[in-house]
Design brief:
The protein is α/β, with parallel strands linked by helices and 371 residues long. It has helices spanning 36-51, 87-104, 118-131, 148-161, 170-178, 197-210, 226-236, 250-259, 273-283, 297-304, 317-320, 330-340, 360-368; strands at residues 26-30, 55-61, 72-77, 109-113, 134-138, 164-167, 184-185, 214-217, 240-244, 264-268, 285-288, 308-312, 323-325.
Length: 371
């Protein structure tokens, strides 16, 4: 199944063709995390705009994982990742005293990516609106994983005050239209660095030694249903690699893995981009049985590195996946994983990576231009 990346941004008025306005001279992307899918998307957007002649700046974390010489990177938000002493208050202080002032000093178009915390993101968006900034906002998700009704309300308010709202899948687009909003639909571009031969060789040896045939990469969260995936792999005769930083699901994954010791290999650590890319390239199959999702950065990267994506057809995953599974029933996942086969790459010869989408800069020009 092909991804539903529109070749033209679509606005809420249903126009069949976007207006061709001159791109702004300057765009500032505001992204708090400095790592993971939202940051990698922000970097891809920045590179595409920079290649189109736009001056691009990204305001982000002090320890941002990737940079690019075509973009000015302002590293201002300190996550204090190496210390737990008063970590929460110290992060909050950095956000209030450094991150927000940096965003407020911007000129030109300001494009806020993702959400630090919904309440703080709402505050930032309101300040930018009061300043009169030419504002865009990409929430990257329309639902709350943790905060219940109140956090959902804050998410909704962020979207309502965020200026031009940019989403990346048809499900979110349709949902915002249902809420009487006028979103813009754009491709979920991702920064795709070259594969490092030494990383590929390392993971080829690991996959071959442990006979890995399916992977799950990224945060270990409860909504990813990793115990279900592990049981399905056991019954389908697949060997599973689960790799990523714990976000609340490690205990249940470890328990299930102990019941199937010959099936799953669990690596609990944050994956650097070189390793994540090499795992996708080498293993060849990534499984995403997520309960809820707007879209998946992993699915975009998997396609770039020639990896087959198997996913539950929820949200944007329904159009991102190569193979969709209609339910989260164990039997359906066993069938899907049994049929996908073994797609490991055992050759040391690297495949050519796809070049940048030649239409991406044009699409983003339309997204950031005033209508």
């Amino acid at each position: 199944m092909q991804p539903s990346n529109k070749r033209q941004p679509t606005d809420g008025q249903g126009s069949s063709e976007a207006k061709r306005d001159a791109a702004p001279a300057r765009v500032t992307l505001v992204e708090a995390g400095g790592s993971g899918g939202v940051y990698q998307h922000s970097l891809a957007v920045g590179v595409a705009l920079a290649e189109d002649g736009v001056a691009v700046r990204i305001i982000t974390a002090t320890d941002a994982e990737i940079d690019d010489e075509r973009i000015q990177l302002s590293r201002v938000l300190d996550w204090h990742r190496r210390s737990r002493f008063l970590r929460g208050p110290r992060i909050l202080a950095s956000f209030v005293l450094r991150f927000v002032p940096a965003a407020m000093r911007t000129r030109g178009v300001v494009w806020v990516q993702g959400s630090f915390k919904p309440g703080l993101t709402l505050w930032l968006l309101l300040l930018l609106r009061l300043k009169g900034a030419s504002l865009l906002y990409s929430p990257h998700t329309l639902f709350s994983r943790h905060g219940g009704a109140f956090e959902s309300l804050l998410f909704d308010l962020c979207i309502r005050v965020g200026g031009k709202i940019v989403v990346y899948n048809e499900a979110d687009y349709a949902e915002l239209l249902r809420r009487k909003m006028a979103p813009t639909l754009a491709p979920l571009a991702m920064y795709v660095p070259p594969l490092r031969p030494e990383a590929v060789l390392k993971w080829q040896e690991y996959a071959s030694t442990n006979r890995i045939t399916v992977c799950s990469v990224g945060q270990l969260r409860a909504d990813k249903n990793l115990p279900l995936l592990l049981r399905a792999c056991a019954q389908a005769g697949q060997r599973l690699l689960i790799a990523g930083q714990d976000a609340g699901a490690l205990a249940e994954v470890s328990h299930e893995s102990a019941l199937h010791p010959d099936v799953a290999h669990v690596i609990e650590e944050y994956l650097q981009m070189d390793d994540l890319a090499a795992i996708l390239y080498v293993v060849g199959v990534v499984a995403l049985p997520y309960s809820v999702a707007s879209q998946s950065a992993v699915a975009v990267l998997a396609r770039a590195y020639g990896c087959t994506t198997v996913a539950y057809e929820v949200g944007g995953l329904a159009s991102q996946a190569d193979i969709t599974v209609p339910t989260l029933d164990l039997r359906d996942w066993v069938t899907a994983l049994r049929d996908v086969g073994d797609r490991r790459r055992l050759s040391t010869e690297l495949a050519d990576l796809p070049t940048s989408d030649p239409e991406l800069a044009r699409i983003l020009r339309d997204v950031v231009s005033p209508r």
